[in-house]
Amino acid sequence: MDLGLAGKVAAVTGGTRGVGRATVLALAREGVQVAFCARDEEALRLVEKEVSAEGGSCLPVQVDLAERSAADDFVTKAHDAFGGLDILVAAAGIHKIKEFADLTDAEWDETFEVNFFAPMRVCRAAIPYMQQQHSGHIVIVSAGSIHKPSIGPDVHPHYTASKAALANLAKFLSKQYGPDNIIVNAVLPGYSIREELRQLWAGEAEAAGLSTEEHFVRTATDIGYVPAMRRAGTPEEFARVIAFVVSDANSFMSGVELAIDGGGLDG
Length: 267
Description:
single chain, alpha/beta, Rossmann fold, seven-stranded parallel β-sheet
């Protein structure tokens, strides 16, 4: 299937890790010109090299989206560099495991600043460009745990609350800007074993005589979040879904929460 993405312009936040990085690469492979941002200059250059090695076109932008002017700066650079803006994927975020009773106000503030307010500001900056051309696709990366908040070894109430707010924002934006032919959806990724997590779990898995995947299933069982497919997903699997959702092949699905979790949200 031709997704009709070749020649489009995309802006992706959080483009050097996890779902964001995988999305940058997936879109670039489809012929999209991709601007992507992150705080780490070295990580930006590594992803730029990956895109270039596959013949793609990209613009790495070093910004800290917790700074209130950064969203406008990033979106303006993306638009001006490529002469338009067709796609926005808001994938930046932070995730820290901590008990509710131990969380400070500063930690709640930081989490909502990065996970909610920064994506909100990026959407606010991108939408006028999309209104001018009467078309656009926005995907906001929320989280599968918004419908089943984790407790125990993966407790993160501040993260879940911020991601739930994002899903609500996506629903609002889909209704507000649907008349402008702007399609807005939230994706709800389940657990994935990215490289950082694989390294974190390696010692625990080895001590228990398990593979990382087997250790994941045991851990997921403990918190009541085992995908029906009995494995974790990968950032690449999430990114392939996002690439479809922001493509011309999706011309009428808007305002939905799309779970990408291997059947793990029931119960």
